[in-house]
Write a structure and sequence with these properties.
The protein is an all-alpha fold. The chain has one domain (22-223). The chain has helices spanning 22-34, 37-44, 100-113, 128-137, 141-165, 174-184, 196-215, 217-222, 240-252. The chain starts with 21 loop residues before the first helix and ends in a 13-residue tail after the last helix.
């Protein structure tokens, strides 16, 4: 009998294993915390349309409103202090707190948001779940606020999967997973009231995943960012195309007299 094409191989047994060292995941977490990328992603990723594709029988009936009231033990590990060594950070300034099941769920959700596309790797392939683990385990106020939000969202998603399909989210078919994701993907005027709270929480999770991805070398390459690359030899200067663009802008502004002449090559 043919297998369900919507079912990924060995999905029950899938367990995310990060190949990233603590040193590297800490560097990415600190880059994420120090950058302006996270607020930009947060502001720009919540207006996309929700899929209207009919998921058929695998959608199951949407549940009524529910929310996990988690009582998390406070993170008491010390941070870096006021003058952290960003060149050689300590290996383990605080313990990681996500369980294996939570990491695997983060990996599955991250790859739904950012699947592999051609030569561009998926979120889990560049160890985004490890960065999320660092983020929610860090003992700082901003990260601890996100910790409750993210862990509540993960718990809600597994609870919803159990109520709809009697399985954890990781064990669902892709069609079943999509049915849940379509309901919580974005908080819009059309979002049913029972999904408003989780849609907001999932929006924060999505922002973390996207920002973490685009802080990686693969992510920056995907968006065409070419900064922080050393130039060997003499600086070649702007291209002729760049000069032409600048000349046009200056002409439009009536500032042609300030154009910088290009020396004959």
């Amino acid at each position: 009998m043919a297998k369900d094409q919507n079912y990924t191989a060995d999905q029950h047994q899938m367990q995310y294993k990060s190949g990233m060292t603590r040193r590297d995941s800490l560097k990415l977490m600190m880059a994420l915390a120090a950058s302006t990328l996270l607020p930009a992603v947060l502001a720009g990723c919540d207006s996309a349309p929700v899929s209207t594709t009919d998921a058929g029988a695998d959608a199951a009936k949407a549940t009524t409103e529910h929310w996990p009231e988690l009582k998390l033990a406070p993170i008491t590990a010390p941070g870096y202090g006021k003058d952290p060594n960003l060149i050689l950070p300590p290996e383990s300034p605080w313990p990681l707190t996500l369980t294996q099941a939570q990491l695997t769920l983060v990996a599955v959700l991250s790859d739904i948001l950012l699947p592999r596309e051609g030569s561009v790797p998926s979120a889990s392939e560049v160890h985004v779940p490890a960065v999320v683990d660092e983020w929610v385990s860090a003992p700082y106020e901003r990260q601890q606020q996100d910790r409750l939000t993210i862990l509540s969202a993960l718990t809600w998603i597994d609870d919803e999967a159990q109520m709809r399909f009697s399985k954890t989210f990781v064990a669902l078919t892709k069609t079943q997973q999509k049915a849940i994701m379509d309901d919580i993907a974005f908080d819009t005027a059309e979002t049913p009231v029972q999904f408003k709270r989780i849609a907001t929480a999932f929006g924060r999770f999505r922002s973390l995943v996207l920002a973490a991805f685009f802080c990686t070398p693969e992510g920056t390459k995907d968006i065409g960012y070419v900064g922080n690359v050393p130039i060997g030899g003499d600086y070649p200067g702007p291209t002729k195309e760049a000069y032409a663009h600048l000349d046009k802008v200056l002409a439009d502004l009536g500032l042609t007299e300030y154009a910088y002449p290009i020396e004959a090559g």
